[in-house]
Design goal:
The protein is of the alpha/beta class. It contains 13 helices and 16 strands. Helix 1 crosses helix 3, helix 9 packs antiparallel against helix 11 and helix 10 crosses helix 11. The longest helix is centred in the C-terminal third of the chain and has 25 residues. It is globular, with a radius of gyration of 23 Å. The protein binds zinc ion.
């Protein structure tokens, strides 16, 4: 980029906004110390951001020295930064996001089929518009999908477990706001890279998204690996059984997601008339994990394949991406807590010498707020910052 006065000013503006988003309210002096910009430059840019409704003054700083307390500046909560639809095979979560990265879940609805989904989305948007402040320039509508998504033009290329293809959201959601779509695992790895201390410091992170299917989000050298056809890191569709005749929704045979999703162990447990508590597969899987922890024999047998194939998926991730951290999450966010010990034992048996010593395995830090929901808001904020003029 050619550095001229205008682009320099823009870089400073973005830097100040990013500082306030990441660190919360701060006085102009604190921002100046961090950014190394002069107090007068900070004041000028803050006034500009304030006139654009992006920041506002809120109260006084506690970190005061003697004398007059400095005024704190914060990103505004006057408008939503995002309205989020985290689309799952069974259920869709609706949430709203703000510029300070806070999120509020609004509701959940059954995803059912494409027609009813689009109609529920439009009704929900109408409802949110009446209850919350939106801004045509600042608010984005973000969709997270289990599948291959062209993030540049908000098109679902193929969502295998929903059997939706070539769905351009900008064609079906007629709303005067920016519409963004991305893959749920990509958004999850983005959320972790901004929010968790170990991931912030890492260059290479992998998010293994386990739900009704299996997705992958790889962040390599701080960049999401989307691939040239947006199918990068689709670990769920790597083959783990070469001679398998189990056909996957993707068209291939023997894919990881046909062996290690949350569904199979539930079906296995329930096949002889037994029932697990819970309405969805995710809820039932949680019950099953608790039985596993209590050494229940049937639960252990039902989960054997899941653990075995998941450990193979993990070793494939290690040998392909060599990440510093592998984060597991999705439908049930405590897989490593319940099965980590056993998974690690099996990974160790197959790993090349020295390769897994420095790899951190853990569950996602996101529990109450789903990781793709948080990532969707981060993406909306990023887009907003990048589109500033
Ligand atoms: Zn597949």
């Amino acid at each position: 980029m050619k550095i001229n006065l205008k682009s320099m000013k823009m870089m400073n503006k973005r830097m100040i906004l990013r500082y306030l988003i990441e660190n919360g309210a701060a006085s102009r002096m604190e921002v100046s110390r961090f950014t190394k910009l002069t107090p007068s430059t900070i004041s000028r840019i803050v006034s500009e951001l304030s006139s654009e409704n992006l920041v506002e003054e809120i109260g006084y700083s506690d970190k005061s020295q003697i004398g007059r307390k400095p005024v704190n500046v914060s990103v505004t909560k006057r408008f939503l930064s995002s309205i989020i639809f985290n689309v799952g095979v069974e259920q869709t979560t609706v949430a709203i996001g703000f510029f300070d990265k806070s999120i509020k879940e609004i509701k959940r609805f059954s995803t059912v089929n494409l027609e009813s989904f689009i109609s529920t989305v439009n009704d929900t948007l109408e409802n949110i518009k009446e209850r919350y402040p939106l801004n045509h320039e600042l608010t984005s509508i973000v969709f997270a999908f289990p599948g291959i998504v062209n993030a540049q033009n908000a098109t679902v290329i193929y969502a295998p477990n929903l059997n939706w293809r070539n769905l351009n959201l900008r064609d079906v959601i007629k709303y005067g706001y920016r519409i963004i779509a991305d893959n749920e695992a990509n958004l999850s790895v983005l959320a972790e890279s901004i929010s968790s201390e170990d991931a912030k410091k890492s260059e290479n992170i992998f998010f293994l998204y386990v739900s009704q299917g299996i997705g992958g989000g790889a962040m390599i050298n701080h960049q999401i690996l989307r691939g040239s056809g947006f199918a990068g890191a689709e670990i769920g569709h790597t083959v783990v059984e070469a001679k398998s005749d189990i056909k996957c929704h993707c068209g291939n045979y023997g894919c990881l997601e046909r062996y290690a999703s949350l569904i199979l162990p539930v079906i296995e447990y329930e096949k002889n008339g037994r029932r697990l508590d819970g309405k969805t597969y995710t809820e039932k899987f949680k019950t099953l994990a608790e039985l596993y922890a209590k050494q229940d024999k049937v639960a252990r047998a039902s989960l054997e394949g899941f653990i075995q194939y998941l450990s193979i998926g993990l070793i494939n991730i290690i040998n392909t991406f060599n990440p510093e951290i592998i984060i597991i999450g999705g439908g049930f966010n405590k897989i490593w807590k319940y099965f980590g010990k056993e998974l690690y034992r099996r990974i160790s048996d197959r790993a090349m010498p020295g390769v897994i010593d420095n790899v951190i395995f853990r569950d996602t830090i996101f529990e109450t707020i789903e990781a793709p929901v948080s990532g969707a808001n981060v993406l909306a904020i990023e887009m907003l910052i990048n589109n500033l003029d």
